[in-house]
Amino acid sequence: NARGGVLLIDEAYSLATDGLGTDPYAQEAIDTLVGQCELPENAQTLVILAGYPGPMRRFLDANSGLSSRFPVRVDFFDYTGDECIQILRGWLRREFSGFELPGDEELLVVLSDSIAQVRDTDNFGNARDIESLGKMIQQACDVRRFDQPDDQTFHPTREDIIEGLQQWLAQRNQ
Fold first, then answer.
1. Which residues, 6 or more positions from 160, have their beta carbon under 8 angstroms from its beta carbon?
2. Mean pLDDT of the chain
3. Phi/psi class of residue 80: alpha, beta or left (left: φ > 0; alpha: ψ in -120 to 50)?
4. Which of 45, 104, 118, 124 is spaced 20 to 30 Å from 54 by Cα?
5. 13-22, 43-52, 67-76, 99-108 — which is least confidently predicted?
């Protein structure tokens, strides 16, 4: 269906293995992809293999047929820590009607340090991971409001932010 257009294969390295090395169709998928790239009728088709840098390097290096057919590599850099904080600010502002992160310097340092820890992993998902952090903060706020029905604070408290951050880090470390 992509003939003459664009075929984007996200997390392309997952074609190579199921993580256990037991997928009987993995090599067949790669062989088919390589074969299709060679066909004259696909000369006008752009094939993009996308994925995290480490797994993609290993995937392409493990198969010379793939590596030689995809000689152009484009690396997209992860957001900086400051950009991640800005994304989180925007997400919280949108979800909580204009809410602003407290200017609490200690809280911002904890957030920045935690985000930096996650950014250093091979599978950091950029804005997707920051949105997950926002959802964890939102969940912590919802739990607090359920547990304390008299609390009329409808936006995240400092404690909600810390709890959401801890949940996010725990989830990322699984």
1. 137, 140, 141, 144
2. 85
3. beta
4. 45
5. 13-22
Alpha helices in 19-124, H assignment, sequence order: 26-38, 53-61, 64-69, 81-95, 105-119
In the predicted structure, residue 51 carries a pLDDT above the cut 70:
yes
Distance CA 118, CA 128 (A): 12
Distance from C-alpha of 145 to C-alpha of 155, rounded to nearest angstrom: 10
* Arithmetic mean of pLDDT, 89-113: 92
DSSP 8-state secondary structure symbol assigned to residue 40 = G
Contacts of 16 (CB under 8 A, 6+ apart): 26, 30, 59, 62, 63
Using the CB atoms, write b or e for 44-56: b if 16+ within 10 Å. Answer: eeebebebeeebb
The DSSP H or E segment spanning 137 is: helix 127-147
Instruction: Please report the pLDDT score of residue 131 as a whole number.
Output: 96
C-alpha 51/C-alpha 124 separation (Å) is: 11
Single pTM value for the model: 0.70
- How many H helices and E strands in the chain? 7, 2
